[in-house]
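Page header: ASSEMBLY MODEL / two components / 890 residues total.
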Amino acid sequence: MSGITADDAMAEAPQERQGDSYLTAETGLASWLLTTDHKRVALLYAAALTAFFFIGGAAAVLIRLELFTPASDLVSAEGYNRLFTLHGLVMVWFFLVPAIPNTLGNFLLPLMIGARDLAFPRLNLFSWYLFMGAGLLLLAALLLGGVDTGWTFYTPFSTGYAHSNVLLAALAVVLVGFSSVATGVNMLATVHLLRAPGMGWFRLPLLVWSIYGTALVMVLATPVLAAALLLVVAERAFGLPIFDPRQGGDPLLFQHLFWFYSHPAVYIMILPAFGVVSEIVPCFARRRIFGYTFMVYAILMIALLGFLVWGHHMFVSGQSLYASLVFSFLSFVIAVPSAIKVFNWSFTLYRGQISFQAPMLYALGFIGLFTLGGLTGLVLASVPVNRHVTDTYYVVAHFHFIMVGGAVTALYGGLHFWWPKITGRMPPDGWARFAAVLMFFGFSFTFFPMFVMGFLGMPRRYASYPPEFQVWHVLASAGAVLLAAAYLLPMGYLAWSLVRGRRAGDDPWNATGLEWRTASPPPRDNFRVPPIVEEAAYLYHPRHEGPRHEEQEPHRDQGGGT
Amino acid sequence: MSGLSGWVPLWPPAASAEAGTVDAIVLLLLGLSGAVLLLVLCLVAGFAIRYRRGSPAKRGALPELVQSEVEIGWTAATLLLALLLFAWAASAQLGEERTQSDALEIHVTARQWMWKAQHPNGAREINALHLPRGEPVRLLMTSEDVIHSFFVPAFRIKQDVLPGRVTQLRFHPTETGEFHLFCAEFCGTLHARMLGTVTVMEPGDYARWRAAQPEGDGLAREGAALFVSLGCAGCHGAGGGGSEVGVGATVRAPRLAGLYGRDVPLADGRVVRADEAYLRDSILQPGRDVAAGYAPLMPSFAGLLGEGEVQRLVAYLRERGEQPGEGR
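Prediction written out in full:
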């Protein structure tokens, strides 16, 4: 109960017409390309990411087609190497890393903490231009013949042996890293400085916490990637001996630097997904999130421990056994906060009033796929087993379960959940539920066979393979057809809903966050009345009671009664 | 191809002692992961069905038990489980490292895109490796160009092969048959063609096979010739006996006989074990680990010697090192 009535608010901002949303406040191409509105920048990112998702996805389709038969018949070996490099580079840096933070995060972070915009709106737009510049650089590298180092740029192959556009690609990744850092700094500053009155740290919705954790990791880890790749550029372009053993360099140094960024990058991809699921599950279970404080500390633990486990990518690289054991230990330990999150989501359902609209189906699918992805990580964390399965399809399956089964499923779930807020229209729920179920099964059919063939010994990055693995590749390729359909279908019906979808009210899901306390879509400055926060997040029922038997409990809004 | 038989196998053939260890841990992890997955599935599906909207199940506040105690409970349980798994996997690995016995030593050189192997008697193979069953094997591997990785799924082992460094792989074949050898680290255009076959034979068959191969001179014999022709003997003495100034050599240089496997005190106070890696580094980068009491006079042989020549020299020094040094 903020004490400010709606009448006062109207008096404060009389010039703003009712119904003027951020989408219609200004018109013209320049109003989009020069916007500093975090919501519009989020949509700019969404457009760019969709394009990159199609490019990376097309490469995946070609890869799965090629692997349908054991021989290298659709594309040459050289072509195949360029395809999986393209797929990795585009999907990691130009889709997964920015996927949730720069689209949903950009859109929602100020709304969820009751701010008018991010702390540095111009930096936000600048970060998008950096992203686009990096994207064009990468596209140039691809159009000029591609890159054949794998997204990992391992030395000395990348510095001395690859005959492809390594320099352009590496510089593109360095540049996109700057975009990442700019976004991270912006979000950290926003959470620190722009929380609405009363929005204490432990009243923050978990999506805000997870984006905060992600931003920390982005800011601290990305410069190391830039350094590593600039060293690759220095050696490849100018012959500076750093990684080349013939000149006294150490090729393993690159792997340490690279994984010091790239393992935390996994958490950059998955932490925001945790946040999205933590918003969806309580809303559709009509219960407070179970163990809010534990959830917050789990996010921070993961962000911290994520920096200390990079060596588990290098158990067979020739690093000392004792180093491997330390990294193995820490990798087992990082399973604990992840397990806390899974159990807490499960227990949020306990004694709820659960309904199964599309966002909830995506969230439940996420929990299943992430749990399997996480558990298969334990196998990789144990040194003796890792020696067998690392660099095989087992690893491919594992990280796709986390990043695609996890992060991308959550992205789709979040997109459905906040679609009414972003566009003012409801997604068609029947189609959306169908797509959610299709995505779960399509994903499982595509990637589960990879666990089996990886354990059987099928190595990664093979254009051709011994025929006994074919049955698994055929299964995976067949599943990929379903998965592709599940990814395309929402693009179709969401586009349809822009025109024909039911109009959404301010709070179509009866959710508690501040973002639902304003119009759908929100006005340019987010709130007609600056919200004041008097309660914690997720007030789906009074503290010491649960939802009643019959129907949904009327919830209390975080933003008081405004 | 006994190792590759069977219609749609779900489990790879297990043909080494290491495979047993790995499979045991995998089975345990599979069981535990299955249990945890089932638990999560039961919780989610059970709650989702029981507490679907409008169902008659009891709602209201959470029971006392399901407050923070249960949270601390499963945090502690997962931590304990994680630590137990770590302890088991780590001790299995450490146990494997400790049981190092005399092994059949084979030198492996990887290059884009082939595997070369050389047996102790000098027999050479390309993209193939013959091994006797039941005898421990130690591979000393190095690469001529980029990073490769030696992977035999039936043995459950993998080790990256790096340029400019020797990595080792120990294993103990227990089953005869033919098994895949894969390169597991992406190494360029024909990475997927960098395949080989590992053939494990009964010891008698292996001896016959080896006898039938055109024998090279043996690494150590070739290394001895290099030792003389490169002029190493000039300072270190013929036969690696070492020399004092005035005893037939002009420069004082460390004694190499009996060196292998000993701990060597260095000029900067460190002590290193004189293993293959040390010998190799000392040939290529002599200024790095200078033995205590000697001037850093030796020139580097980096760039003058090929990977194969370094291997031969090291093999020779090892052989000299394992015999008691003259004059000791």
